[in-house]
Amino acid sequence: MSIKYWPLKRGFMITSPFGQRAGGFHAGTDFGWEGGSANLPVHAVKGGTVIYAGAASGYGGPDPAGWIVIDHPTEDGGGVSEYGHIIREVQVGQRVEAGQRIGRINPDSRTNGGVAPHLHLSVMPYEYNPSRKLDPVPWLDGALYPGEDPPRPAPVPASGLTAEVLSQAMGGSVPIERYRELLPGFVNAMIAAQCTTVERAAMWCAQIGHESAGLRYMEEIASGAAYNGRADLGNTQPGDGPRFKGSGPIQLTGRHNFRKFSEWCHAQGWVDSPRYFEDRPQLVREDPKWGFLAATWYWVVARPNINTMADARDLVGVTRAINGGTNGLADRQLRYKRCLELGAALLPKAGDAPMSAQEVQEIKDFIVEFCGPIGSDTKDVRQQLTGGRDAGEYPGWEQLGFRTVTDAIAQVLLNQVAIAERLEALEKGKNDDVR
Q1: What residues make up the domain containing 223?
Q2: CB atoms within 10 A of CB 430
Q3: Are 26 and 127 in the same domain?
Q4: Which of 37, 213, 342, 401 is 20 to 30 A from 420 (CA-CA)?
Q5: Total domain count, the chain
Q6: How are beta strands 80-88 and 65-71 bridged, if at all?
Q7: Same domain, yes or no: 305 and 340
Q8: How buried is residue 197: exposed, middle or buried, by Cβ count under 10 Å (0-12/13-18/19+)?
């Protein structure tokens, strides 16, 4: 599933459906346009790689007329799509994206049995296998039309996920106190994974809930010794198996993945070394903050199309991306249904995303830049008025006899008092002489 598009622009019509018809079984669906379909643009229904293109039996030729066949990997929702009676605009081996223009309907009716120009679309659930063709219309249920943008994630609400709701989502596998302990790291990782819609949050909770048995396990139960010597995991040093065994709720495994996770966290500014967790693998198991962020890395970096599949509610596709197969699908389905029913209560609170070291430094730099001159001026004024905090730090004004302003004013006041006393004494002596 993933992001899906109809092959023609909005307003098309189905000229011949999938199924039995006069002359045999029609293993596909014909799409056309009222008033004529010649040269109408054709679009890829999903992202994938072109595996066949050009002239083909039953679809005409010569190249570039004929057909296009696209293989859709798991990340794009899986399956194969076949487009016939078209003129290709892509080539074998080329990567195409969902909704991308890939050709146009061939205007030459001689290529399709003499009927009006149209697109013949076939789909297959897994690999290219003409004997397993499906009806494309239900396969494309909920698809966008070419030119339409996928829906954007909704703003994160101010309410926020609570430990009680997290416990419900996870099936209450651990005491509520443990969910309260895990909640901050869980929420931070959700936001970092952009799981801020009901569809994404439900998929995140269902998949992580299954992989960790409701957040009961933050590391693989086995010792990890079986991973020793696994070069495919980057385990090239003695003891790498246990050292880099499955860690975090979806079990980051192998020196290679710990290094990639470290590099990603370093790029975000969250750690100070691109080998941080390669040197400290136990943190991914022991600190929920890092364990959950390891799941985020897998979700958005190692398998970057998971959120796209989550938007389409493609539980099977996400399961294949995480598990490599469909192990535990029944449990994942139950968890996913429960999480969808929780709805917006699963969504994290706005503003809970972790700040990176770079963001913290930017705030500090702003404060220093804004307040630095003010602070410097304040210090100068203080020194001029009262002197420095330490003796001898500020010698005072030369014009004031190397006194501070406060000391100079005090001296003026003392001098005034002395003058007043002197005048008073002189005045008294004058009066005594008169007598």
Answers
A1: 163-346
A2: 9
A3: yes
A4: 401
A5: 3
A6: antiparallel
A7: yes
A8: buried
Q: Which residues, 6 or more positions from 432, have their beta carbon under 8 angstroms from its beta carbon? A: none
CB burial of residue 398 (10 Å; 0-12, 13-18, 19+): exposed
Q: Give the 3-state secondary structure percentages of the chain, helix then strand then coil, rounded to 5.
A: 45, 15, 40
Per residue in 165-224, pLDDT tens?
999 999 999 999 999 999 999 999 999 999 999 999 999 999 999 999 999 999 999 999
What's the chain's length in residues?
A: 435
Say which residues have a Cβ less than 8 Å from residue 396's Cβ, sequence separation at least 6: 387, 402, 403, 404, 407, 408
Residue type, 399: Q
**CATH code, domain with 103:** 2.70.70.10
Pairing of strands 101-105, 119-124: unpaired
Residues 6+ apart with CB under 8 A from 363: none
Closest listed residue to residue 104, CA positions, set 121, 125, 119, 82 = 119
**DSSP letter (8 states) at residue 251:** T
Which of these, 312, 331, 311, 309, lies nearest to 320 by C-alpha position?
A: 309
CB 161 within 8 A of CB 339: no
Token pair belonging to 191 = 């936001």
Question: What predicted TM-score, i.e. pTM, was given to this entire model?
Answer: 0.51
Count helices and strands in the chain by DSSP H and E runs: 14, 11
- How many CA atoms within 13 Å lie on the side-chain side of 220? 17
CA-to-CA distance for 176 and 190, rounded, in angstroms? 19
* Tokens 């009806």, located at residue: 135
Q: Which structure tokens are listed for 194?
A: 């952009």
Whole-Å CA distances, 75 to 68, 206, 304, 322, 395: 20, 18, 8, 10, 73
Query: Where residue 271 sits, what CATH number does that domain have?
Result: 1.10.530.10
Task: Dump pLDDT digits (tens) for 317-368.
Answer: 999 999 999 999 999 999 999 999 999 999 987 555 555 455 556 676 767 6
**CA nearest neighbour of 191 among 317, 350, 313:** 350
- Report in angstroms the alpha-carbon separations of 383 from 40, 370, 391, 414: 81, 21, 11, 22
Residue 53 bridge partners (DSSP) = 68
What secondary structure, in 3-state letters, does 6-65 show? CCCCCCCEEEECCEEECCEEECCEEEECCCCCCCCEEECCCCEEEEEEECECCCECCCCE
Cα-Cα-Cα-Cα dihedral of 320, 316, 284, 157, to 10°?
Answer: 150
